[in-house]
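Hi again,

Forgot to attach this to my earlier email, sorry! This is the prediction with NAP bound. I've pasted everything inline since the attachment limit keeps bouncing my files.
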Amino acid sequence: MAVEVAAFVEKSGRIPTLATVLIGADPASEIYIANKHKACEAAGMKSVHHGLAADTPEADVVALVEELGADESVDGILVQLPPPDHIDPDVVVNAINPAKDVDGLTPASAGMLASGRPGLVPCTPAGVIELLDHEGFDLNGAEAVIVGRSNLVGRPLFSLLLARNATVTICHSRTKDLAGVCRRADVLIAAVGVPELIDAGFVKPGATVIDVGMNRTEDGLRGDVNFPEVSGVAAALTPVPGGVGPMTIAMLMANTLAAAIVRG
Ligand code: NAP
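Structure tokens for the complex follow:
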């Protein structure tokens, strides 16, 4: 990213800039935001943080997000979710200028992705595809199974895998015989939020398994996959921490640069 950012800076004479917004002081969100700012610095990009009090009215948050949308110096806008209970995340996300939607969460970005058109893609699903590409995994015709159908991970991943010609199945809490469906997968992606749900019985020998889960437990951070068990069955498996998490941040940098390039 640093090489690509440097090339953009030389060509355009300006530095790509990410604006972040955090409402309240949730400790986990503060860590995520700090990591995103560190990554911007490492990539040679600028970042500007807007920390708002936990009791900031929804209308004030929307006003700030709209202001950033109109600010010529800002290329990307990231609102750290979830907000406090009195704020509807959809209302805030809908206020993001789609050209600066580096989290890919606005209805405009989601619609472009679902209809197979180019646009800004949510960072975690984009990171999953980047990991698979980097490892040379051939998605063409592969059986891909996703566990989880959130707007943040499962649904956009469905569109991305379909666009790469995988045969995609998406599972959720009502899926019958979850383990049986998962065992069909050449590539199995867990984005569930249930620590170590996916054990060896869910995995076809030789499958590639991507663990998106980040669950804080009494024993520390755990993925959705039982790593010791599944590593004995899968051909490849991402660790938690250290797998998809860093990719998510890297893709945020990539999206911010992409937004800056489109804006010129
Ligand atoms: P979410 O919005 O809570 O969605 C969870 C999905 O899993 C839902 O579709 C739910 O089904 C399904 N599910 C829950 N329990 C299930 C079960 N027992 N069997 C089958 N399906 C089940 O979560 P999310 O935002 O997508 O996040 C998922 C995980 O990824 C979390 O651990 C989160 O922390 C992590 N995450 C990591 C990153 C990263 O950068 N690494 C980024 C985002 C999220 P229903 O729809 O039927 O309720």
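The chain has two domains: 2-100, 123-244. Residues 124, 147-150, 152-154, 171-175, 178, 191-194, 197, 212-215, 244-245, 248 surround NAP (CB under 6 Å).

That should be everything now.

G.
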